[in-house]
Amino acid sequence: MMAGIGEATIESVQELQPLREAIASCIEQLGKQDQFIIDALNSEMISLQELGERLGVTKTHAWRLRNVAYERLQLILSQHPVIRERLGFDDETDNSGF
Question: Dihedrals φ, ψ of 5, to 5°?
Answer without folding.
Answer: -60, 130
